[in-house]
């Protein structure tokens, strides 16, 4: 007997032979956390050597700032094991940052002037210099305040044995890599289409500090309401992190990256990384023999493109992400729209990860032939609307041009996910995936249960600013992890990772390398390869008119 799912009157059958293969998908977390002092300001101290070298450590690194830690779990099939690993990383980090705290929120607080935000350093090697200069370019383009907004990335892939079985079931006669990549791109398109649901359920940034508003210099900040003397908010917001005052910016809105196929994606993103932008030309690439940015293109590198979901293929040394995708296809997808949950010590709960896994699978099995520009704009507007006022009881979204109440659409999607959750429960009498789904359904019926609503309620009840609430939680969780015993074998393994990473950094720094200019030229020349065959052609969505308009 097969299970059947419907979405907008489409029926998709999950064959019984595929069902056991769905429960072994790999999950991973990348979680960003700012190191802050007791007063809430971003730490000006370098990345602690007790945590290893950020450039070479596989699980503890830095993102934009020297103070913005990124904790990375391995890809594991057991979600509980994955979150336990994340908790162990927190225990180890909190034991090695002296009296500093890990900020338990997505939106930064404290002094957010550029001089108060140190850019990450990775040493004098070519790869280390490139990472630093890229971040320097981001500061010129967007300001440092935007770059220290923290988030959580949920990585997901199906077990390898699933794909040949699924290809056979779908009667696809091409090569397996192309089929797998095509299927992941369909999953991504549907995750984009339904991504507003992630913002509603897991958004945890409805308010920001006054210092953020002052430092962000965004015209959209005028739409915020004053909560108290040091806090601004939107009454129904879910994720200001994913709004116009967060990651959105007008330059990137000037071009459209198609996800209709991997070839389209590579073509459009290659164009954005090879076409110069007038405003960035004015910044200058190399001034007085000092690099300000890697180049003056719309995007310095592919990773500068901010999107809610990314196709991913691990890169080899000095390999560009698009080169990896073009050569080896998609290995996993990265959901990037999850806020740090202020009410969870690690920033994310097991119920959240189970829901995201089920939603990803649901999106795999839903038809989606592609998005035209109108659908792309509708998807973007839905996400932006929910980020700004997702808990508004009267809110309606657009579904292929038709207005639908958010609550109605959300409940319909969750009901359609029940079958997937039953498969993932795999006979477990505790039905963990179904329970995680029911928890989210409760949030749809009762918006006050969402993390974004709970934040505003806590601020009101405790008469706290957003900074005070963030500091309270940061202190509570940092002390919790410091008091939690780390298993001896796990600590020894982390200690070895630190020692190894420091040795690798030292070895890398001592290498006799080619001149940096030559290194950079070699890196970007990969765009001329056959795997990225369209990189020198102006993409159809980056017309001369749009390029000029975006440059003004």
UniProtKB/TrEMBL annotation:
Keywords: ATP-binding, Glutathione biosynthesis, Ligase, Nucleotide-binding. It catalyses: L-cysteine + L-glutamate + ATP = gamma-L-glutamyl-L-cysteine + ADP + phosphate + H(+). Its EC number is 6.3.2.2. It is an enzyme of class 6 (ligase). GO terms for biological process: glutathione biosynthetic process. One of its GO terms (molecular function) is ATP binding. SUPFAM superfamilies: Glutamine synthetase/guanido kinase. Pathway: Sulfur metabolism; glutathione biosynthesis; glutathione from L-cysteine and L-glutamate: step 1/2. It holds the Pfam family Glu_cys_ligase. The keyword Plastid does not apply. It comes from the Bacteria. InterPro entries: Gln_synth/guanido_kin_cat_dom, Glu_cys_ligase, Glut_cys_ligase. Residues 16-385 form the Glutamate--cysteine ligase domain. GO terms for cellular component: cytosol. Belongs to the glutamate--cysteine ligase type 1 family. Type 1 subfamily. This is Glutamate--cysteine ligase. It comes from Nitrosomonas oligotropha. The gene is gshA.
């Amino acid at each position: 007997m097969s299970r059947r799912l419907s979405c907008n009157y489409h029926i998709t059958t999950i064959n019984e032979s595929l069902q056991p293969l769905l429960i072994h998908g790999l999950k991973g977390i990348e979680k960003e956390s700012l190191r802050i002092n007791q007063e809430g300001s971003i730490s000006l101290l370098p990345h602690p050597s007790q945590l290893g070298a950020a450039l070479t450590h596989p699980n503890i690194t830095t993102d934009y700032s020297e103070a913005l830690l990124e904790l990375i779990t391995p890809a594991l099939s057991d979600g509980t094991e994955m979150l336990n690993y994340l908790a162990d990383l927190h225990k180890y980090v909190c034991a090695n940052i002296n009296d500093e705290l890990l900020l338990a929120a997505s939106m930064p607080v404290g002094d957010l002037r550029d001089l108060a935000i140190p850019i990450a350093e990775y040493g004098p090697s070519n790869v280390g210099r490139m990472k630093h200069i890229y971040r320097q370019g981001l500061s010129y383009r967007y300001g440092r305040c935007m770059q220290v907004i923290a988030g959580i990335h949920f990585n997901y892939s199906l077990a390898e044995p699933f794909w040949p079985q699924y290809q056979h079931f779908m009667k696809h006669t091409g090569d397996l890599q192309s089929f797998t990549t095509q299927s992941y791109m369909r999953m991504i398109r549907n995750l984009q289409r339904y991504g507003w649901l992630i913002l509603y359920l897991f958004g945890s940034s409805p308010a920001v500090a006054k210092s953020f508003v002052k430092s962000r210099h965004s015209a959209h900040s005028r739409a915020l309401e004053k909560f108290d003397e040091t806090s601004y908010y939107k009454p129904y917001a879910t994720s200001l992190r994913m709004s116009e005052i967060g990651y959105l910016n007008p330059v990137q809105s000037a071009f459209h990256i198609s996800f209709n196929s991997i070839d389209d994606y590579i073509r459009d993103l290659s164009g954005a990384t090879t076409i110069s932008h007038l405003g960035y030309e004015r910044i200058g690439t190399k001034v007085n023999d000092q690099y300000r940015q890697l180049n003056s293109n719309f995007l310095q590198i592919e990773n500068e493109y901010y999107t809610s979901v990314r196709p991913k293929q691990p890169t080899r040394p000095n390999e560009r992400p698009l080169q990896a995708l073009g050569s080896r296809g998609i290995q996993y997808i990265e959901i990037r729209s999850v806020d740090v949950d202020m009410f969870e010590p690690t920033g994310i709960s097991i119920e959240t990860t189970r829901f995201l896994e089920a939603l990803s699978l649901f999106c795999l099995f839903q038809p989606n032939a592609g998005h035209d520009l109108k659908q792309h704009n509708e998807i973007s507007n839905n996400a932006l609307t929910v980020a700004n006022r997702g808990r508004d009881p009267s809110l309606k979204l657009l579904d292929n041009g038709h207005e639908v109440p958010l609550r109605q659409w959300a409940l319909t999607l969750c009901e359609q996910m029940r079958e997937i959750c039953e498969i993932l429960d795999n006979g477990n009498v505790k039905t963990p995936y179904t329970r995680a789904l029911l928890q989210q359904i409760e949030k749809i019926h009762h918006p006050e249960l969402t993390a974004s609503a709970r934040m505003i309620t806590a601020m009101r009840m405790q008469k706290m600013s957003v900074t005070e609430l963030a500091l309270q939680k940061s202190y509570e969780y940092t002390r919790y992890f410091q008091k939690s015993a780390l298993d001896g074998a796990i600590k020894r393994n982390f200690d070895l990772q630190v020692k190894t990473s420091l040795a690798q950094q030292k070895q890398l720094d001592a290498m006799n390398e080619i001149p940096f200019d030559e290194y950079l030229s070699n890196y970007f020349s990969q765009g001329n390869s056959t795997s990225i065959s369209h990189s020198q052609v102006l993409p159809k969505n980056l017309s001369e008119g749009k390029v000029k308009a975006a440059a003004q």
